[in-house]
Amino acid sequence: MPSADLSPGDVLVLYIDSVTGEEFGVHRLSAAVRRGSLQSAEELMIDIFNSVSDFCREDGVRCDAAILAVKCDFDVSPTVTS
After folding, report:
1. pTM
2. Based on the number of CB atoms within 10 Å of its own CB, is 82 exposed (0-12), middle (13-18) or buried (19 or more)?
3. What is the pLDDT along the chain (82 residues), one digit of tens a residue?
């Protein structure tokens, strides 16, 4: 099973492939993630969803979108217990 090490500040965006299909594309998704990198995970997810919706409306295509954004915000200092 694939795995990845995440660090504080990392953003993980999960999406169905219709979000990055021929119409919207990975480059637009990447731009939306970069643009919202300082937002909360919820705000980022809404921004991506709105970007996809706006694009679909402008191009007259039907897009299905399922998006989950996770922002790593955990304390990396070691905890010592006795």
Report:
1. 0.70
2. exposed
3. 888 888 888 888 888 766 656 677 788 889 999 998 889 889 998 998 888 888 877 766 666 677 888 888 766 555 555 5
